[in-house]
UniProtKB/TrEMBL annotation:
Protein name in the entry: Peptide/nickel transport system permease protein
A biological process term (GO) from this entry: transmembrane transport
Record membrane topology: Multi-pass membrane protein
Source species taxonomy: Bacteria, Bacillati, Actinomycetota, Actinomycetes, Pseudonocardiales
Transmembrane residue ranges: 9-29, 102-124, 136-160, 180-209, 246-272, 292-318
Organism (species): Actinocrispum wychmicini
Length: 326
């Protein structure tokens, strides 16, 4: 229990530090986002409303950074992420709420599937080293070294065009109203095929390589030799003895990949113009949208911390040595 409490305290402190950095970094970017907003509105905002905008976005020049920081924490505790510059006058929470499901559905699902398939294939490749499966390892090494966005560009060049049914950009067909209907779901699935396959190929290759190498190392351990000497079935030795211990390093990597789902595939969403959170972050940086950047960074930070906390719990279940008392 003391180990768990220490980890919770560590994650709370890390969350505070990350939120603090999240507040100050956007304000160090040169430029005035309110003036940029006024320029984009092309005279629709009167000079009398300028000061109100500074107050609305928490950038009142009469307040010090410390005062703005305290107000920012007050907003967070109320669940208020502020108003977006880019999508003014929409709330940041609304913008994130519209984009987050797209990212979770695309990147989250493909990351989980890639981890499961890659781990299973890596387990077999490591356990049966020297077989024909070793010939696949150079291919997986090559694929895992290629960035997501480069695979996306190759996929667009090869599989899209006038004669192809696969779209090159967007999340659904123009004119289709987002709703839980067969037409919209079918259109969304069709638009998600190329981005999903791009992410799946790259991440699955990495899991195969790492799990295979860990299985080769673990297979020579004494407890695996003893399990063989006891006459246990080979499948049980592979799964319960070798794979269980070889999986531990991959658990941390999987936790980090889950945490970075929100922003880790930014370039993929840009390449495919996919309406996810990474694409919104790209737009927010271009327009110096402090509230939206802070909201997205907050989601990324909390996702990483939550994923690592789940990884710690998984470690406690998989490896009894981590269950320390006192």
């Amino acid at each position: 229990m003391s180990y768990l409490l220490k980890r919770i305290a560590f994650y709370l402190f890390t969350a505070w530090a990350a939120i603090t950095i999240n507040f100050f970094i956007p304000r160090l970017i040169p430029g005035d986002p309110v003036q940029s907003l006024i320029t984009r509105m092309r005279g629709q905002i009167t000079s009398d409303a300028v000061q109100s905008l500074y107050v609305l976005f928490g950038l009142n020049k009469g307040d010090s950074l410390v005062s703005q920081y305290v107000k920012y924490w007050g907003q967070l505790l109320r669940g208020d992420l502020g108003v977006s510059f880019t999508f003014f006058p929409s709330q940041v929470g609304e913008v994130i709420g519209q984009s987050l499901p797209w990212t979770l559905a695309l990147v989250g699902l493909t990351t989980v599937i890639g981890f499961l398939i890659g781990t299973a294939l890596g387990t077999l490749a490591g356990w049966r080293r020297g077989s024909w499966m070793d010939a696949v390892i150079p291919v997986t090494t090559f694929l895992s070294s290629i960035p997501y966005f480069w695979l996306g560009l190759i996929a667009i060049a090869l599989f899209t065009g006038p004669d192809s049914v696969l779209p090159a950009a967007g999340g659904f067909d123009p004119g289709v109203v987002p709703s839980w209907t067969g037409g919209f779901i079918g259109s969304a699935l069709l638009h998600g095929i190329l981005p999903a396959v791009t992410i799946l190929i790259s991440c699955m290759s990495g899991w195969i390589l790492s799990m295979r190498n860990m299985m080769v190392t673990v297979a020579s351990e004494d407890y695996v030799t003893v399990a063989h000497a006891k006459g246990l079935p080979e499948r049980r030795v592979m799964v319960r003895y070798a794979a269980r211990n070889a999986l531990l390093p991959n658990v941390s990597g999987f936790a980090l990949s889950l945490g970075f789902i929100v922003g880790g595939t930014l370039l993929v969403e840009i390449v495919f113009s996919y309406p996810g959170l990474g694409y919104q972050l790209f737009q927010a940086v271009g327009t110096k949208d402090y509230p939206l950047m802070q909201g997205i960074f907050l989601i990324i930070t909390l996702s990483v911390l939550l994923a690592n906390f789940v990884a710690d719990l998984a470690y406690m279940l998989l490896d009894p040595r981590t269950r320390r008392e006192g």
